[in-house]
Amino acid sequence: MAPRFQLTFDCADPDRQAHFWAEALGYTIEDPPAGFETWDAYWRSVGVPEEELDGGDDSIVDPDGAGPRIWFQKVPEGKVVKNRIHFDVNAGGGRSVPLATRKERVEAEVTRLVALGATRRHTLGSGLDHYAVAMVDPEGNEFDVH
């Protein structure tokens, strides 16, 4: 059996990142453990110091249970280099879908993500049998929509 894993993002504002990526990926904000109203309440109950709590949402989960949990960890330092791993958001539908339709779908998703706080960088692969748009999330992490 393959091991379960989570993806962890270092960031300045876990709540903002969690809400952005939940919307971008169709994930949901992870509920705190049973019996606790918030994650901070849970963490306090197990002895995490108050200064380590961030007071917001910081993890998201796939509502179908298929994808990994994603945790946004608050760190003091900012992002300084290009990501070594990034999300590819498949909005186009794959190569069985005509290229013109894929472009329309990608552009619609890019528009939606920009409204959520992402920034469009540039188009990738235009003119080939591939169409994608390079973007960055609200904290500058690179990702592609294809």
What does this molecule look like?
It is a single chain. The protein folds into two domains: 6-74, no CATH class; 87-145, 2,3-Dihydroxybiphenyl 1,2-Dioxygenase, domain 1, CATH 3.10.180.10. It contains three helices and eight strands, in the order βαβαβββαβββ. The chain is α/β, with parallel strands linked by helices and 146 residues long. Strand 6 and strand 7 form a beta hairpin. The chain starts with 5 loop residues before the first strand and ends with a strand.
Largest sheet: 4 strands, mixed
Helical stretch count? 3
Taken together, the total number of domains comes to 2
The fraction of residues in strands falls at: 15-25%
Percent of residues in helices comes to 25-40%
Class from helix and strand fractions? alpha/beta
**Amino- and carboxy-terminal Cα gap:** 31 Å
| Strand line-up across the major sheet | 1-4-3-2
Mean pLDDT: 93
The unreliable regions are none
Q: What would the principal axes of the Cα set say about the shape?
A: elongated
Radius of gyration: 17 Å
Q: Helix and strand succession?
A: EHEHEEEHEEE
Instruction: Count the beta strands.
Output: 8
